[in-house]
Amino acid sequence: MQGLFITATDTDAGKTVITGAIAAALKARGINVGALKPLASGGTADDNGQLAAEDTNFLLKAAGLAEDQRTLVNFVCLQPALTPAVAARQDGVTIDMAAVISGCRYAGQHFDKTLVEGVGGMAAPLWEDYTVADLMAELGLPAIIVTRPYLGAINHTVLTAGYARQRGIEVAGIIINQWNEAQAGILEYSNIEYIERLTKLPVLGKFPLVPAISVAGARLEGLAELAERHLAVDRLLAAMEGQDK
């Protein structure tokens, strides 16, 4: 399948917003796109007692997918707001990672481009000793690393990119989330300079923090337009197709 795996330096970097933004932009271009959240935690029960995660709701809407396609987007939803391996233990659930991988590949057959969002960072455990990095390596999709322009971002982003290389995972580039152009100064711009210099990877966008965009409220007005304005969508597409150099 053609697509991207969206990971991050930490759990609050905004993977879901960026995954949704890319999905919305591709959908607006007429591309049949899927946005997967294979494992999710922090789910809440709906009227039928079924667990649903905010991240999944947001991605369904961003990609323009119907409710009956939820099982193509999310395969495991857990109630505790913990890393999946721990949440599953709390809920007495066994996670079948082979089934998760098969689910991703099956979903990929239904879409021209498939975005897969991880949980937390690359070393987050999904089941026992199986981590996000293991899933990334098995799926073999180019990765995008999402980070934020905070003090410490250089260290966290360089370490994440280095771990990806150690695991043989191709990284297409980095996206800076929660960018505030009006307040950006030496900290923010030096982050970009050193992240690109030390990782040898391109920054493919600076996505703004927009109050109208809410994962919790599944609000995404103008998300596709924001993606086109602030992300290098053509380069992201080229990376999915193996053409980005």
Automatic annotation (TrEMBL):
Xref: CDD domains: DTBS
Binding site for substrate: S41
Cited Gene3D superfamilies: P-loop containing nucleotide triphosphate hydrolases
TM regions (residue ranges): none
Pathway assigned in UniProt: Cofactor biosynthesis; biotin biosynthesis; biotin from 7,8-diaminononanoate: step 1/2
Cofactor(s), names only, from the UniProt record: Mg(2+)
InterPro entries given in the database record: DTB_synth_BioD (IPR004472), P-loop_NTPase (IPR027417)
Main EC class the enzyme belongs to: ligase
GO biological process per UniProt: biotin biosynthetic process
Active-site residues, record numbering mapped to chain: K37
Residues at which Mg(2+) binds: T16, D55, E117
Keyword Ligase attributed: yes
Positions with a binding annotation for ATP: 12-17, 55, 117-120, 177-178, 208-210
UniProt keyword annotations, A-Z: ATP-binding, Biotin biosynthesis, Cytoplasm, Ligase, Magnesium, Metal-binding, Nucleotide-binding
One Gene Ontology molecular-function label: ATP binding
Keyword Protein biosynthesis belongs to the record: no
Annotated compartments: Cytoplasm
Pfam families: AAA_26
GO cellular component: a single term: cytosol
Function, in words: Catalyzes a mechanistically unusual reaction, the ATP-dependent insertion of CO2 between the N7 and N8 nitrogen atoms of 7,8-diaminopelargonic acid (DAPA, also called 7,8-diammoniononanoate) to form a ureido ring.
Subunit structure: Homodimer.
Similarity-based family: Belongs to the dethiobiotin synthetase family.
Name this polypeptide is given: ATP-dependent dethiobiotin synthetase BioD
Source organism (scientific name): Dendrosporobacter quercicolus
